[in-house]
Design brief:
The chain has 292 residues and is of the alpha/beta class. It folds into 2 domains: 135 residues, Rossmann fold; 142 residues, Rossmann fold (3-Layer(aba) Sandwich). It has 11 helices and 12 strands. The strands form 2 sheets. It has a 6-stranded mixed sheet with strand order 2-1-3-5-6-4, with helices on both faces. Strands 9-8-7-10-11-12 form a 6-stranded parallel sheet, with helices on both faces. Helix 5 crosses helix 10. The longest helix has 16 residues. The protein is globular and about 65 Å long. The structure holds 2'-monophosphoadenosine-5'-diphosphate. 2'-monophosphoadenosine-5'-diphosphate binds next to helix 6.
Length: 292
């Protein structure tokens, strides 16, 4: 019998998670199926419970074991689980649910996925770096803790609405102290005089809106690395801007997507898939129109 998994979102038709998890399953010999499930924004909890409780429609299908959750349900996902990992609580959101645990357990693998992508796919060591994180919404909250865990020397959070950056920084004060990182919130107006950064991460939603990057070019250290948490053509506005102003490397969010999925898969199945071949296959798939 095949264990069942899915990704919940609204919209979810674009999600590459089924491709990624089926590839992991083939690679590791795990017997599972993985679908997309779209539900209306106010129907998440009911849809999820109905799916978990509903008997399988076919004899070859086994129990529902877990799911991924994408926007806008990551905050609700955390609230629906009786247990949650420390990193999910710190992020205030969950992208993974595990139904094997009584009452369900929630995790957030987004930030660890970003760190793993930068380390394993890009060869980047974050310890000692000066990092600028742009944005203070759900995406930024998901990555801040795991970035701090790597021990950067300085990490600045900057957001259009400064109070949100300050709140995020306050919530992570203990993590920053433990990793000896100088963690600060600076308003966009303060950024031109804030020095330069080795790693500049766009976690704002400007890319999805096709808008200009919400940071001045002075923040980019010569030869720095720019990262946008989204992937595909949307990421290019920020990444091309950074390359034009002195960044040496531009990394989109596709590697993070595969890495966060691998961490979720490992949590469910107890085996760690190799991410690099799946990332390469996914890039090729997205580059060929009509193939997805
Ligand atoms: P996500 O889950 O993608 O993080 P979100 O929680 O709505 O979505 O957060 C969006 C982030 O992008 C916020 O940091 C937002 O800034 P505000 O907190 O001021 O709203 C940021 N953002 C969106 N549009 C922006 C713009 N035009 N300029 C600067 N920042 C913007």
């Amino acid at each position: 019998m095949l264990d069942r998994y899915a990704v919940f979102g609204f919209p979810v038709a674009h999600s590459q998670s089924p491709f990624i998890h089926q590839a992991f399953a083939e690679q590791t010999g795990q017997r599972l199926v993985y679908d997309r499930r779209e539900c209306a924004p106010d129907a998440f909890a009911d849809s999820l419970r109905a799916w978990v409780d509903q008997p399988a429609e076919a004899a070859h299908l086994g129990p529902v074991r877990g799911c991924n959750v994408t926007m806008p349900f990551k905050f609700d996902a955390l609230r629906l689980a009786r247990q949650a990992s420390d990193r999910a609580v710190l992020a205030g959101a969950a992208n993974v649910l595990n139904f094997d645990t009584p009452g369900w357990s929630a995790d957030n693998t987004d930030g660890a996925g970003l760190v793993q992508d930068l380390r394993d796919h890009e060869g980047l060591v974050l310890q000692g770096l000066h990092i600028l994180l742009i944005g203070a919404g759900g995406a930024a909250a998901g990555v801040l803790g795991p970035l701090l865990d790597e021990g950067p020397q300085r990490l600045v959070v900057s957001n259009r609405t400064h109070a949100k950056a300050e709140a995020l920084v306050q919530r992570h004060a203990a993590v920053a102290a433990a990793s000896h990182t100088d963690l600060q919130a600076l308003s966009p107006e303060q950024l031109p005089g804030a020095g330069t950064f080795d790693l500049v991460i766009n976690a704002s939603s400007t890319s999805l809106a096709g808008q200009a990057p919400p940071a001045p070019p002075q923040v980019l250290a010569e030869g720095c690395c720019a990262v946008d948490l989204v992937y595909g053509p949307s990421a290019r506005v920020f990444l091309d801007w950074a390359l034009h102003h002195g960044a040496a490397r531009a990394i989109d969010g596709l590697g993070m997507l595969v890495a966060q999925a691998a961490l979720a898969f490992e949590g469910w199945r107890g085996v760690r898939p190799q991410t690099a071949p799946v990332l390469a296959a996914l890039r090729a798939r997205l580059a060929s129109p009509g193939a997805h």
